[in-house]
Amino acid sequence: MGKGLLIIVLGVGVILSIMILNLNANVHQELDETLNFYNNTQARLIANSGIEIYLEKMRRDKYLKGTFNNNSLLSGTYNISIYGADDSLLIKSVSTYDGFVHTSLVNARRRPMQIPSIYSALYISADIMNLNLNGNVDVDGNDRNMNGTPGTAPALPGVGLDTPADSTFFINNVKPKITKTINGSGTTPSVYTVNNTTNWRDVTEDFIFSADTVLNTGTYSSGSQFGTLTNPIITYCNGDVDFTSATGYGVMIVNGNLNLSGNFTFYGILIVYGTSYIRTQTIGNNAVYGATILVGETVEIQSMGNAGFYYSKQAIDNAKFNLKSSRFEILSWWE
Predict the structure, then answer these.
(1) How many CA atoms lie within 13 A of 176 on its CB side?
(2) Is 286 in contact with 305 (CB distance < 8 Å)?
């Protein structure tokens, strides 16, 4: 009886020992699996976060390409490679975390810059217009190249406005000397109602998001250069600005009042935009080749020098085909 009981006790002990050993093994296995899952997840997070970080860098630096190694993040590292044309970018991120490696590969494209439709050399959209045009004001909707020679595109109105009442008001409130210098499609003065349904708030916000240069309120002196013929840019002026003898190519957004003095020449689209009152003043010799757009509840135009507003399809196309957007479309994401 005693021996039998001892055998049973020993047997139960062996069984319990085996069960405990198996239980410990399962615990260690589950712990290993949990740690592996965590490490893999961290490596994946680092790789994907690296792509997001470099997409933001590419938004700010539109020419960023190449390989960038040993970036630290979340106690791990990642290497980034960016290559390909803007319409077919490949971004590769390889991360390492505690010995675990993860690779993510993104195919993206930089979204083309959306250029608004142009209906006139000078477009004014306002509930109230204050016109104080003296000196020599030349507005021409006949196409010109950027060097001033005649272009081949169909002519547009010299001045475009939203309603027939606005057109009548404009003609009746400028001097006869100036009405004779507003040329373009139709008769002289070439001042017409145009069907411009552009949402200028959306347009300006898109340009502002992609701005290459941001200027704050102030005076920008002689010699200021905003883009070149081969590298036009988006310039955003956040506040009232005064340009004295500056040159620019591309698109310029002014959210405030604009004063031009000396010799200011711009090739592309100049937009002066405000939710309430805006003033555009020109003194000296100033010219815009492309299109000029003034949008606000109250728009005041003052000219006391030589001001030229010329439609130029060449200048607009130079901006359209060469400006870079800061927005991306993700075509595929592989990992």
Answers:
(1) 0
(2) yes
Catalogue the E-assigned strands of 119-232: 122-125, 128-133, 136-140, 159-161, 182-183, 191-193, 213-220, 225-226
Three-state DSSP state, 110: strand
Query: Do residues 314 and 145 touch, judged by C-beta distance below 8 A?
Result: yes
Task: List, in sequence order, the alpha helices (H) in the chain.
Answer: 2-60, 164-172, 176-179, 200-209, 313-322
**pLDDT tens figures, 240-256:** 998 988 999 999 999 99
The pLDDT tens digits for 32-42 are: 677 889 999 99
Taking Cα atoms as reference points, which of 51, 87, 46 lies closest to residue 68?
Answer: 51
What gap in Å lies between CA 122 and CA 294, rounded to an integer? Answer: 8
- For residues 231 and 212, what is the distance between their CA atoms, to the nearest angstrom? 11
SS3 52: helix
- Residue 230, φ and ψ in degrees, nearest 5: -85, -15
Q: What is the mean pLDDT of residues 160-167?
A: 96
316-327 tens-digit pLDDT: 999 999 999 999
Of 303, 228, 322, 308, the closest CA to residue 264 belongs to 308
**For residue 306, what is the enclosing H or E element?**
strand 306-311
Taking the domains of the chain in order of start, what are their residue ranges? 2-110, 122-322
Q: What is the mean pLDDT of residues 96-100?
A: 95
10 vs 32: CA distance, rounded Å: 33
Separation CA 104–CA 106 (nearest Å): 7
